[in-house]
Amino acid sequence: MSGKKKHMPPPDELNWKFKRHRKGDTHIENCSDGYKPTDRGSERFKSGGKQRFICEVHHILCVHACSDATLPRGITEEERKFIRNTLAITDWDINAGHNNIGLPRKWAYVLDGDETKRANSGGLSDWNGLPCHQVDHDIYLTKVKEWVTVNIWNKIRANKSAENCENMDPESVQNMFKKGSDRWRALLKKRGSAFGGTRSSLAYCASSQSDPIKEATWHIPFSMAIPESSIRKRQKPYGTGENKATKLERAGLLNAIK
């Protein structure tokens, strides 16, 4: 009788231990880091007859990045099946607090300059040191997808090719995703704190100062784009001289930081 171990067929994805799809507001409820109100509802305020949201909870390793769409090109059906079988028994949840962070939207900066609106929204104003969720998110997503492909999918695939399947136990794969969340969380916080941070940059834009370094770098802390060389160039949301605004106007901000 053969001593070869037989593998059970993998469960349907709905029954996987690995959860890679958004599940309602679970990620919001689980998030405990970044810019996020303690009370639901204080993340929005009314302006111009509309609800304005000042923050959003961001999946650090994004939903699309963890989908089959980012599996390596040229992957064989056997390799694809091995990756999916590995995920099925790996306990990791994309909506867990470890993979989420609260980030400001552009309206947070408008709200922060209005004491009345800020008070009515629970006084939420601690957005400093974090990039804006609406700035260069597409570039961030592209880089995260590339990172997952190279550092997770290809590693699982390589162990399959080398017949080192035992190295891809559930705990090892779980650690790959946890390390990814740690890495990209740290990068986001480092970006938001660059060149004095987002609050310092916004204060510079509102001032009458003219600093060559700040002129070239004020927009960088707001961007989610990694690496820095991929950040889109922008003009300040405030005018200068006779055109200088006395307060941060929504139109100027949204046109400049986008």
Write the layout of secondary structure elements.
Layout lengths: L17 E2 L6 H5 L13 E4 L2 E4 L1 E5 L17 H12 L3 E2 L6 E5 L2 H6 L2 H6 L16 H25 L8 H23 L5 H9 L5 H6 L32 H7 L2
Parallel strand pairs: 1-5
Antiparallel strand pairs: 2-3, 4-6
Helix pairs in contact: 2-5, 5-6
Question: Please, could you describe this protein's structure?
Answer:
With 258 residues, the chain is mainly alpha-helical. The chain has one domain. 38% of the residues lie in helices and 9% in strands. The protein contains nine helices and six strands. The strands form three sheets. It has a two-stranded parallel ribbon. Strands 2-3 form a two-stranded antiparallel sheet. The chain has a two-stranded antiparallel sheet with strand order 4-6. Helix 2 packs across helix 5 (137-161) and helix 5 (137-161) runs antiparallel to helix 6 (170-192). The longest helix has 25 residues, at 137-161. The chain starts with 17 loop residues before the first strand and ends with a helix. Residues 1-6 and 240-251 have low confidence and may be disordered.
